[in-house]
Amino acid sequence: MLARAHLGRQVLVVLGVLLLMVMLFSTTVGPMHILWRDSLDVLIGLGGSNGPADTIITSIRLPRALLGMLVGAALAASGAAIQGLFRNPLADPGLIGVSGGAALAAVAVIVLGGTTLGSLVNWMGPYSLMLAAFGGGFATTLIVARIATTRTGGTSTNTLLLAGIAINIITGAGIGLFTYMADDTQLRTLTFWSMGSLGGALWEVVLSAGSLIVLVLLLLPGLARPLNALLLGESEARHLGVNVDRVKRRVMLLSALAVGAAVAAAGMIGFVGLVVPHLVRLTLGPDHRYLLPASALLGGLFLLVADMLARTLIAPAELPIGLLTSIIGGPFFIALIMLQRRRYSL
Amino acid sequence: MTLGATALGYRIGHSQLLEGVDLDIQPGRMTAVLGPNGAGKSTLLRLLAGEMAPDSGTIHLNGRRYQHWSREEVARQVAVLPQSSSLGFAFTALEVVLMGRIPHASGHTRDLEIAQACLQETDCWHLRHRPFPVLSGGEQQRIQLARVLAQLQDQTDNHPRYLLLDEPTAALDPAHQLLTLQLARRRADQGMGVLVILHDLNLAARFADRVLLLQQGHPLALGPTDEVLTPDRLSGLYQLPMQVIDHPNGQGKLVVSL
């Protein structure tokens, strides 16, 4: 009867299978070509030791593929959740400044890491960057929510995007300031970071970011029904028995956590949170019970493919993946604005 | 067991939006709230729905204050149709109506049956697969009505239920205005307490058991429809000369402005 629910389940299965296949394929692509059969043997632990291929896959390509999937899933799922929270399909973690806030906090840790914060950073290891990014992301989410929420409890698109512009200016200036203060080594890290890259995919990064992201991906679907109700309007959701304030708080916390982990591990990768949920909504509709998991899967797939392109397009050099997603996402965003303008007179 | 308010007051800053309102919404009765723009009708409805706390006075839902019920328990007893809706995401009409079942645990099959029945009742069956945002204002209003009707269906707690409608006929053509109030009337006859905010005095005269007239946040009159809707009172309230005459069909009254 509910054709879309049926379709939703099918799409989730197809995306899951596709994601595994593309992950397998991505471990065969690179300067050294590896047969997919050998790659499969290594991945399921049968390979034993077939020399360099084994090492390349387990210590370089597999962690990188996993990080790509995790970051893509984190950005897309939190994008979908934030759009539900603000009841606005244009709310992307990058556009409204959440990623910028996360990045500013992380950059501060990188640059100040050698000085006052040094001992703290050493003690907390890779988590210090993530916690800082999470804190920055959460703080900006709160600020944006505060600015853009109207008296009646809705959010206005105009205010939301303007707040995003303002916050991106401020965080951009902050990052610029830290760049100015940075020494040469830090500068290289910062550049790589501001354009986004999965090149830093060490296992410890994958595991630390991954643990946070997986936690968020497991908890977010529990908010699907209340998020659906919230799309009707805040007071409508209240009348349906939804604890609106608690749901909003949880969505902000979880998405800031996922975006923070993603930004800390892979830098600023834009537009995934905008493009992916939009594509899912076009096929499956806005029901968060399917939107959230499908966005996570498609986001993982999207970034995995984008990273393969980034690694191979100008080989042996490597394109920053953030540039690539922005090249795809920018025009997409413009198209989206034109469509919206025609439909709702934005 | 009623949804009752005593000595209700509410203000924002220095402006007193509502003062000294006593009102009992009784199961099986339909109460209409009338008054000019800004008289406090919607404020009263939002207070009664527990959406905000009053500054003075008390509200009891079936014998208990709101804070002593859980949110879900309230949602199974009180449903609210808002004046307008701002859903911009492309849920289908059926999906919107199904959201009325969120506070219940009746299972997907039963929820679907209820949603379909409510879509038929509100004359929206043909719209069920259409995306909500592309529907006309009146169609959207009827879908929302179907949603709140679905919300009060199949309640297992056996508490009296209350349907609060804020200008349910505002965007509707005359035929659907009539259909909507007939639906509300039927719910009252089946034992629900119904509160409806209206601007059409004749619809109120025709369907409501009782009328509350509000003037600048104060109750002007509360009582049986025939007794409250008098020419003098209405003329004074709306600052417009009004006459109450017998309906040409011989039943009930008709309010006309002169």
Automatic annotation (TrEMBL), chain A:
<comment type="similarity">
    <text>Belongs to the binding-protein-dependent transport system permease family. FecCD subfamily.</text>
</comment>
<dbReference type="InterPro" id="IPR037294">
    <property type="entry name" value="ABC_BtuC-like"/>
</dbReference>
<keyword id="KW-0813">Transport</keyword>
<dbReference type="GO" id="GO:0022857">
    <property type="term" value="F:transmembrane transporter activity"/>
</dbReference>
<keyword id="KW-1133">Transmembrane helix</keyword>
<feature type="transmembrane region" description="Helical">
    <location>
        <begin position="290"/>
        <end position="309"/>
    </location>
</feature>
<dbReference type="GO" id="GO:0005886">
    <property type="term" value="C:plasma membrane"/>
</dbReference>
<dbReference type="InterPro" id="IPR000522">
    <property type="entry name" value="ABC_transptr_permease_BtuC"/>
</dbReference>
<feature type="transmembrane region" description="Helical">
    <location>
        <begin position="160"/>
        <end position="181"/>
    </location>
</feature>
<dbReference type="Pfam" id="PF01032">
    <property type="entry name" value="FecCD"/>
</dbReference>
<feature type="transmembrane region" description="Helical">
    <location>
        <begin position="201"/>
        <end position="220"/>
    </location>
</feature>
<feature type="transmembrane region" description="Helical">
    <location>
        <begin position="321"/>
        <end position="339"/>
    </location>
</feature>
<keyword id="KW-0812">Transmembrane</keyword>
<feature type="transmembrane region" description="Helical">
    <location>
        <begin position="253"/>
        <end position="278"/>
    </location>
</feature>
<feature type="transmembrane region" description="Helical">
    <location>
        <begin position="127"/>
        <end position="148"/>
    </location>
</feature>
<feature type="transmembrane region" description="Helical">
    <location>
        <begin position="65"/>
        <end position="86"/>
    </location>
</feature>
<keyword id="KW-1003">Cell membrane</keyword>
<dbReference type="GO" id="GO:0033214">
    <property type="term" value="P:siderophore-iron import into cell"/>
</dbReference>
<keyword id="KW-0472">Membrane</keyword>
<feature type="transmembrane region" description="Helical">
    <location>
        <begin position="12"/>
        <end position="36"/>
    </location>
</feature>
<protein>
    <submittedName>
        <fullName>Iron ABC transporter permease</fullName>
    </submittedName>
</protein>
<feature type="transmembrane region" description="Helical">
    <location>
        <begin position="98"/>
        <end position="121"/>
    </location>
</feature>
TrEMBL record, chain B:
<dbReference type="Pfam" id="PF00005">
    <property type="entry name" value="ABC_tran"/>
</dbReference>
<dbReference type="InterPro" id="IPR027417">
    <property type="entry name" value="P-loop_NTPase"/>
</dbReference>
<dbReference type="GO" id="GO:0016887">
    <property type="term" value="F:ATP hydrolysis activity"/>
</dbReference>
<dbReference type="GO" id="GO:0005524">
    <property type="term" value="F:ATP binding"/>
</dbReference>
<keyword id="KW-0813">Transport</keyword>
<keyword id="KW-1278">Translocase</keyword>
<dbReference type="InterPro" id="IPR017871">
    <property type="entry name" value="ABC_transporter-like_CS"/>
</dbReference>
<dbReference type="InterPro" id="IPR003593">
    <property type="entry name" value="AAA+_ATPase"/>
</dbReference>
<comment type="function">
    <text>Part of the ABC transporter complex HmuTUV involved in hemin import. Responsible for energy coupling to the transport system.</text>
</comment>
<keyword id="KW-0067">ATP-binding</keyword>
<dbReference type="InterPro" id="IPR003439">
    <property type="entry name" value="ABC_transporter-like_ATP-bd"/>
</dbReference>
<keyword id="KW-0547">Nucleotide-binding</keyword>
<feature type="domain" description="ABC transporter">
    <location>
        <begin position="3"/>
        <end position="241"/>
    </location>
</feature>
<protein>
    <submittedName>
        <fullName>Heme ABC transporter ATP-binding protein</fullName>
    </submittedName>
</protein>
